Amino acid sequence: MNDKLIIIGASGHGKVIADIAVKNGYHDIVFLDDNETIKTCAGYPVVGKTSDAISLYGDKIVAIGDARIRKEIQSKLSNVVTLIHPQAMISRRVEIGMGSVVMAGAVINSDTSIGKGVIVNTGSSIDHDCWIGDFSHISVGAHVAGTVSIGNSSWIGAGATVINNVNICGECMIGAGTVVINNIEESGTYIGVPARRIEK
């Protein structure tokens, strides 16, 4: 671990990651962002653009909510770290991939695998024997029951619930408060109780 952390994305999400970084022992924190009007974020300086990340020295993490952009940027970087809030509760039998972040109050139970670049947001829970694909996002207060598989680059919205033994394919957006009770085999946007696919 370096003392310096470079956070790509000067956003609200980046602010939360900066707080977690401090709790993980980082003292020298800077941001990168392509919006040149942003000069600071959470009291830390914005020192350049996203493209500068490759040449800068330090540990790095991508703080961008859009899964496609997060994947594109992270794939070009070295020294990518995983950050876990000390008040998250994680089983010793959990695997968490490079570039993922686990927020305060999150719970991840035994024999679950979390992919690369995943966001496990504040107060969410993922129960036993789950598989969460790369660059997915388990939003604030979402709950994933046991033995669930969620494909790459999917978004489980705030307060959504996924019951046990369900598979969700990649590139799905599950709306806030939605309840998933059946397998989802077609990418798209799903809302409601129970979840139903909607056309954009």
From TrEMBL:
Active-site residues (renumbered): 128 (proton acceptor)
Sorted UniProt keywords: Transferase
Domain PglD N-terminal, first and last residues per copy: 4-77
Site (Increases basicity of active site His): 129
Domain of life: Bacteria
Residues the entry annotates as binding acetyl-CoA: 137
Chain positions recorded as substrate binding sites: 11-13, 33-34, 65
GO MF annotation, one: transferase activity
InterPro entries: AcTrfase_PglD-like, PglD_N, Trans_hexapeptide_repeat, Trimer_LpxA-like_sf
Name of the protein described by the UniProt record: Acetyltransferase
